[in-house]
Amino acid sequence: MSYGSDQHAVTFLGGPSGTWSVERVASVVGETLPPIERLEIVPGHVAGAWSLRGVTSHARYVDRSEKTRLDAVSPALDRPEATRAALIPIRKSARWWSLPQDERRAIFEERSRHITDSLPALPRVARRLYHSRDLGEPFDFLTWFEYAPEHAESFEALVDLLRSREEWAYVEREVDIRLSRFRQTA
Ligand code: HEM
């Protein structure tokens, strides 16, 4: 399948080799995923024993002022100092998906303050959101974050905060995968 120029498809491939060493794979809610040693993010959609597919897409909820603020402080992926990463696949409930757009936005931002309370984590955390729901994948979203080890604690605090909010009442499956950049010893 091919996508427009503003979208790109990736596969998170677990296995014995890859750029990222997997520190842990833990269920937050619902069924976990099998443990893996390493992870690679490859372009396109490929099959694999452990594989999750997603595609970047347009923003659903961000308004103009939020976009301006996000664009001003969002760092690029792949910074050399960002040696830690989190891959957090998430599936939301049928109840969430049955809500109209304005009600989802109200829960996401006006009541859960997802953007407002996450913005201070930038530019320390680089992020990318992949959508999986329309691909028939087991998760709706594959969320990916990169940060330096000294910012691991504040990232943890943010994750805890988001999980405590109303938005997360609609999360029915979530797996928390933490990684660090694999370093070859000479
Ligand atoms: C690091 C700071 C973060 C920022 C700045 C941020 C920002 C955003 C923004 C702007 C969106 C909306 C995209 C759209 O309009 O479609 C979004 C969606 C989302 N974020 Fe975050 N986020 C952050 C951290 C997190 C974390 C830590 C998690 C998971 C634990 C997370 C999970 C999600 C999910 C699942 C969505 C999709 C929600 C939906 O469409 O229903 N985010 N985030």
List the helices and strands and how they pair.
Elements: E1 9-15, E2 20-29, E3 38-43, E4 50-55, H1 64-73, E5 84-92, H2 94-97, H3 101-111, H4 114-118, E6 126-131, E7 141-147, H5 152-163, E8 171-181
Antiparallel strand pairs: 1-3, 1-4, 2-3, 2-8, 5-7, 5-8, 6-7
The protein binds protoporphyrin IX containing FE (HEM).
What does this structure look like?
The protein is α+β, with helices and mostly antiparallel strands and 186 residues long. The protein has five helices and eight strands, in the order ββββαβαααββαβ. It has helices at residues 64-73, 94-97, 101-111, 114-118, 152-163, and strands spanning 9-15, 20-29, 38-43, 50-55, 84-92, 126-131, 141-147, 171-181. Strands 4-1-3-2-8-5-7-6 form an eight-stranded antiparallel beta sheet. The longest helix has 12 residues, at 152-163. It is globular, with a radius of gyration of 16 Å. Protoporphyrin IX containing FE (HEM) binds next to β5, α4, β6, β7 and α5. Residues 59-62, 70, 88, 90, 92, 114-115, 118-119, 121-122, 125, 127, 129, 141, 143, 145, 158-159, 162 line the site of protoporphyrin IX containing FE (HEM).
Tag the structure with descriptive keywords.
single chain; 186 residues; alpha+beta; 5 helices; binds protoporphyrin IX containing FE
